[in-house]
């Protein structure tokens, strides 16, 4: 028997192709029922015909596979989580390199990475590239992770008066990456050794840069206005705002919205089980990557398969939510613990 006033985490993930010919984003989130931990892994592929979609699937599958394997240690070995995140990223980079060696036609493919581990109210992350990790508290939004693109340098030039604001916003090199997973040396990574502590009511959004077609002030406004709504509703309003832009060049968009509902320990009332009883509690998982690909991706000549977000059955039998009014072909799956 499990007793808790409400889930600690309220989580929803969404993905939409936008105006692009390819879906090069991949995302998976896993918040097991009854546990105090959760994981989100997101990758934004690059390469187009050079298989950016394959790169993002490989990165998400490899990183999630490693973190899932280590998840039993998160509580007892919390100080080692940054090492787990780093090792997972290194392994993903190695698998990308092996894939390119075996399939030379995919040379140039790569992906950004944001991987997130939450233990109660403590958040660890690893990021490579320009996919943002946002934190919202008390009406204000802030990007927590480093931006490994030319955008920070261009913004600095604007602030220094070397460039006017409009030229900075439209600079052709603004989205050029200074670090990315390519199967080569990774130039930069952001993986703090100490966790970021969340407070009750905080909202975290981990996303691909497609969400940044919205101004940061607009994202902040949406989070503030709907801060008391469920994460699936917030995700729907973000997708609706993107749809309203009607930008024919809209990039792929994927993101997870995470709300911290409370920071109380989960109370477990242990009841004696009959001899031979097998506990079949399952996890609440929101996936974009097919779970069978975790094993397949390591096999040679096998490419993982991307899917639209599909809810996995939950223990509490609460159906995943698909948000009304969301962008066509965009799905929102909600979960929590």
UniProtKB/TrEMBL annotation:
Span of domain PPM-type phosphatase: 8-260
Pfam families noted in UniProt: PP2C_2
Annotated region described as Disordered, given as residue ranges: 316-337
Protein name, entry field: Serine/threonine protein phosphatase PrpC
């Amino acid at each position: 028997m499990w007793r808790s006033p409400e889930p600690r985490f309220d989580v929803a993930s969404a993905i939409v192709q936008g105006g692009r010919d390819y879906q090069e984003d991949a995302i998976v989130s896993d918040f097991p029922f009854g546990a105090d931990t959760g994981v989100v892994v997101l990758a934004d592929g690059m390469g187009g015909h050079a298989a950016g979609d394959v790169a993002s699937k490989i990165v998400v599958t490899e990183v999630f596979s490693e973190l899932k394997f280590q998840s039993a240690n998160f509580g007892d070995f919390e100080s080692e989580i940054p090492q787990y995140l780093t090792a997972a990223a290194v392994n993903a980079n190695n698998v990308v390199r092996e894939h390119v060696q075996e399939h030379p036609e995919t040379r140039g493919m790569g992906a950004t990475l944001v991987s997130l581990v939450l233990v109660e109210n403590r958040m660890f992350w690893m990021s490579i590239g320009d996919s943002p990790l946002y934190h919202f508290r008390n009406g204000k939004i802030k990007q927590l992770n480093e931006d490994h693109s030319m955008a920070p340098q261009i913004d600095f030039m604007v602030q220094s008066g070397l460039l006017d604001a409009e030229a900075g916003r439209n600079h052709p090199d603004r989205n050029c990456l200074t670090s990315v997973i390519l199967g080569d040396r990774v130039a930069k990574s952001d993986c703090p050794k100490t966790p970021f502590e969340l407070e009750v009511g905080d909202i975290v959004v981990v996303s691909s840069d497609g969400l940044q077609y919205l101004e940061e002030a607009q994202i902040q406004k949406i989070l503030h206005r709907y801060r008391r709504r469920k994460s699936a509703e917030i995700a729907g309003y973000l997708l609706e705002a993107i749809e309203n832009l009607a930008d024919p060049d809209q990039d792929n968009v994927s993101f997870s919205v995470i709300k911290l509902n409370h920071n109380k320990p989960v109370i477990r009332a242990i009841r004696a089980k009959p001899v031979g009883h097998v506990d079949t509690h399952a996890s609440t998982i929101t996936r974009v990557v097919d779970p069978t690909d975790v094993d397949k991706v390591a096999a040679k000549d096998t490419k993982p398969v991307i899917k639209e977000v599909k809810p996995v059955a939950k223990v509490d039998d609460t159906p995943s939510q698909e948000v009304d009014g969301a962008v066509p072909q965009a799905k929102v799956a909600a979960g929590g613990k």
